Every structure is written in structure tokens, then in C-alpha cells.
């Protein structure tokens, strides 16, 4: 039995398609609280973080869209996550676009000597304002956690880097920008692209990733972007990429993580109900959350 604190981070300013701020509601309607309670966990739903204070962003740069609002919300999120862990509870953050992982990772990192992360995503989210093709901050959270790019982002929750490159595993990648590929090589970040997963199978690759992180880290944050899944299984995302992980593979991944007992915090992000079909993507998120917290088929 775990004590789990659910926190909605209803942020949509890290990218340009409206609607992803409704992700937390959609995941709640898909029954996340009941699902976790039925598994015997104690669940507190803390509701949603308050929206950003500043509304206007007209003067802000196109290489960092809506910077001040993203900074403001993530600063509050980092503090909330920090408090949740300090109280002995497991923080489960519901996005919102992936920019909210800047705050969740910042809030987590101070609690561990060697915090690690599994970035379950079609993308690497390793851009900075100088490499980003879009200026969308949801493509930058992993770079910010490494201490790279705009300091207003990387200094949220403290000026130190929140993650070491060797404690990061990217899983499901298939849409990396050239500069992200360079950075991955330069820093030696472990990446399981769709190529490795197709070639050797989810079971072997996830087992390897788990063994790798178990050796290096004392706490692992799972940051699961629903676009890691193939759009067939998770159509309600803002940046879908074909050729993704299946529903079944993702279930197996969550079951293996549950069995390994390495995940100490998590976020499920990028569910956009406006782009979804009958809440399928939110339902997939809840199914995966069930498996991550110990649900078994028999
Ligand atoms: N969290 C995401 N869905 N990120 C998509 C990022 C796409 C692209 N690499 C960019 O930086 O704009
Ligand atoms: Mn993505
Ligand atoms: Mn992402």
C-alpha cells in the first residue's frame, strides 16, 4: 500500500495547441482515483494547481513562448512536489503539457542523492531556446533538468542541475531533432529508440533500462508523455508521431516497473481531450497508471 497524492498541472502554455490544460480533468473522469483505491492505495486528490497569474505574453520571445507563465507555474509545482515527498507520499502529477516536468523533476530531485528519470516519450525534450525549432517549452524540460538553456527554467527549485546525464533513460524515442541527437551523444545519455525496442523487444529493453537505473540511482521519476504510444492507441496528443509503442508494450513496461519497485514519483502528460476520441487517451493513461501501481491481470 502506498500513499499517493494526485496533483493536476493544467498547463497548456508550453506548446501551441489549446486543450491540454484539460488533461487532468479527463484523467480524473477516466477514474484514476477509484482505480488506485481499488488496488488498496490511499489516495489524496489535491486538485489542480492555480493557473498562471499573468495572462498576456505579447512581448515575449518566439524562442521561449510564454516563458513567464511557465516559470511561475513550475515554481509553484516544484514546491508542491517537494512538500508531497516530504510528507511521505508518492507524487503523481497529471499534465498538462510536458513543460510541467521542469517543476516536477525540480521538486523531486532534492530528495535523492542520485535522482534518475525514465523519459517515456516519442521525443527527447532536450531543446533549449537556441536549438528549439518551435520555441515551445514542452520540448525543453529535460534540458532544463540538466541545467541547460534559459536559467529562468533551469534554476526553478534551485540553481543546481537536477539530473546527471548518466541517470537519464529516454524510452520510445523516434522524433529527435538534430541538435538533440548531438547532445545525447555528447552527454552519453542512454536512449532506447523504437529501433532497439523493435529489434530486441520491450521485455529485454525495459529489463536493461531498469538494471541500468537500479545501479546508478536511489530514486526514479517516471515522466510519461502519452505521445510515446502510437497515435492509434493514444490519439489525444498535440505532437503525435507514427510508429510508436503499443498499448500492450506500454502495459508490460508499467508492470515491469511495478515489479522492480524503482519508481518513486511520476507524471502523465500531454493528454489533450480536444484532440482525443471519446477520452481514449485519458483512459489509456489510467490503465497504465493502474499497472504502474501494481494492478495484475490475474
Ligand atoms: N513534450 C513534447 N510533446 N515535446 C515535443 C517537442 C517537439 C520538438 N522537438 C520541439 O522541440 O518543438
Ligand atoms: Mn512527446
Ligand atoms: Mn514530451
TrEMBL record:
Output the CDD domains linked to this UniProt entry.
Arginase
Q: Which cofactors, if any, are listed as required?
A: Mn(2+)
The record's NCBIfam families line, in alphabetical order, gives:
rocF_arginase
Q: Keywords on this record? A: Arginine metabolism, Hydrolase, Manganese, Metal-binding
UniProt-recorded Gene Ontology molecular function terms: arginase activity; manganese ion binding
State which Enzyme Commission number(s) the record gives: 3.5.3.1
Q: Name one GO biological process term.
A: urea cycle
EC top class, as a word: hydrolase
- Give the co-factor note: Binds 2 manganese ions per subunit.
Q: In which pathway does it act?
A: Nitrogen metabolism; urea cycle; L-ornithine and urea from L-arginine: step 1/1
Question: What's the name of the protein?
Answer: Arginase
Q: Where does Mn(2+) bind?
A: 98, 121, 123, 125, 225, 227
Against SUPFAM superfamilies, the record matches this protein to: Arginase/deacetylase (SSF52768)
Q: Which InterPro entries match?
A: Arginase (IPR014033), Ureohydrolase (IPR006035), Ureohydrolase_dom_sf (IPR023696), Ureohydrolase_Mn_BS (IPR020855)
- Can you state which reaction this protein catalyses? L-arginine + H2O = urea + L-ornithine
What is the similarity comment for this entry? Belongs to the arginase family.
Keyword Acyltransferase annotated: no
Q: Which GO terms describe its cellular component?
A: cytoplasm
Question: Which PROSITE patterns does its entry note?
Answer: ARGINASE_1, ARGINASE_2
